[in-house]
Amino acid sequence: MSNILYPLKFQPILKDKIWGGQKLKTHLNKTLDSHNVGESWEISDVEGDISIVTNGVFKGQSLQQLLVDYKADLLGDKNYKQYGERFPLLIKFIDAKYDLSIQLHPNDKLAAKRHNCFGKTEMWYVMQADENSNLIVGFNQKVTPEIYLRHLQDKRLTEILNFNKVKPGDTYFIEVGRVHAIGAGVMLAEIQQTSDITYRVYDWDRVDANGNERELHNDLAIDAIDFEMEDNFSVSYSKNKNVSNKMVNCPYFTTNYLELNTVLEKENTQDSFIIYMCVDGEVEVKTSSGIEVIKKGETLLLPAAIKNYKLSAGNAKLLEVYV
Fold first, then answer.
1. What pLDDT, in 10s, does the model give residues 70-109?
2. For residue 237, which of 116, 161, 220, 320 sits 20 to 30 Å off, Cα-Cα?
């Protein structure tokens, strides 16, 4: 079966959010039917939001169906042994017109026990940021559960949070148990485990059109926060051109930065699918089955069975992701 797999494009799954805006349209050329779109799920195997192929002979088929049909040829042997017919990553672009809630995600153990799903380790790559935009990542001091709860109850939580002013290219690794939030004015690429479990702890006291506040999850969150976590969330990486520069390497995914202005012959030695997120410019991907082009704001999935391919670009920036 592997000889008919080819690079796959998927229909973006767009999500209206109370904090969303229009940058996914104005910056990434997504077709929006709403004024408050916050997320474009580029590749998803989350129940109820399964990605659908938009190119080639598999057009109209779901990612789930391809996993059933092609197994390790799609995922890679080691990934298929670990995840079976489940795709391990959720790939997104996010536009925060307004501040997201202050939140965190449970680890695998808690998520499995409470929600029968994976935890949610993730990373952010900032694509665009308005002047003075921030990301909240972790605490700005040593915090105990008692200190945290006191600030939460007094609506002074922001006093102990770490605000980071950001610019394009800034990258953050958000481990499970780390309190975080995307601030107003930031558009970013997000790579994460396949999970949609979020514990909101503070939502800026805002209400929806009907005057209702969004649900908070403080009873669940207190057990999920890692108060001993070190502040190693900001990712430093090289930006050498025409080579893959390691950004994040964790048990759930590896992400590289690839800035390309030539033709690059690549070989997949990872025993994994490879995802390319185009974060600037456009790139041509050539395999034995043909050519696909991805532009800024588009994503491509190369099945594990594709071992050799060429990337060509005049000037493009890519995130290269595999497990």
1. 999 999 999 999 999 999 999 999 999 999 999 999 999 9
2. 161
Name the nearest CA neighbour of 156 among 106, 102, 224.
Answer: 102
Neighbouring-strand partners of residue 39? 15, 94
* Residue 200 known to be catalytic: yes
Please check whether residues 139 and 280 belong to one and the same domain. Answer: no
Which CATH number characterizes residue 190's domain? 2.60.120.10
Per-residue pLDDT tens over the stretch 168-224: 999 999 999 999 999 999 999 999 999 989 999 999 999 888 889 899 999 999 999
Give the pair of three-digit tokens for residue 189: 């690429």
Co-location of 191 and 310 in the same domain: no
Number of structural domains, the chain? 2
Containing structural domain, residue 113: 2-224
Residue of 86, 114, 178, 200 with catalytic role: 200
